[in-house]
Amino acid sequence: MKKEKKSFHVSDLETLRAIADPLRVQILELMEGQTLTVKQVAEKLGLAPSKLYYHFGALEKLGLIEVAKTRMVSNMQEKTYTSAADTLNVDPELFRFSKEGDNEPMNILLSSTIDATREDLLRSMQARQFQLEQGAEETPRRVIINRVVSSVSEKRIAEFQERLVNLITEFEEEDKNSKSTDQPYALTVAFYPSFYFDKTTRKGKKK
After folding, report:
1. Cα pseudo-dihedral 165, 117, 115, 60, rounded to 10
2. What pTM did the predictor assign?
3. Residue 73 within a domain
4. Total structural domains within the chain
């Protein structure tokens, strides 16, 4: 009987630091829905297996991945891993903003997301170039990288947010019906109110 997956809840800063490493983020993304060895993950990331053993050990200790099976290969034990959780939830209490504090949790989250996106995109470009050099068929694909700041009414922003959330949900749902031959795509989103320091802002004035 297939083991039911669970949600992994992050409620402390130490655990958040441990899972925020960009390389660990990529490992966890690769492990979704499949079982892989350290060597197989290393090959997909274009890295030496020796660079991943420590990270696999840390993720296993945290309970984010687990050993699915083991076998002997050349008198050495080879472990095949699987993800232990379907979703990763971070306690909102960790992100309480403090004007005087260093706000490390938020910095960790932002750095992890941005760094993982950068590393994934750069690796993808290198891997695709390698495929083309090996004779893969050219298939034009669009990469969108954009930053826009726009002044919008609160009513319109609510509409944008709802549409964006629905689009993200739709994008995630596509994975359930995907085939092994379908091309993976990555989506990183940051949508937030942008403020500037304004000396004319008075106390008590609605912001």
Report:
1. 90
2. 0.77
3. yes
4. 1
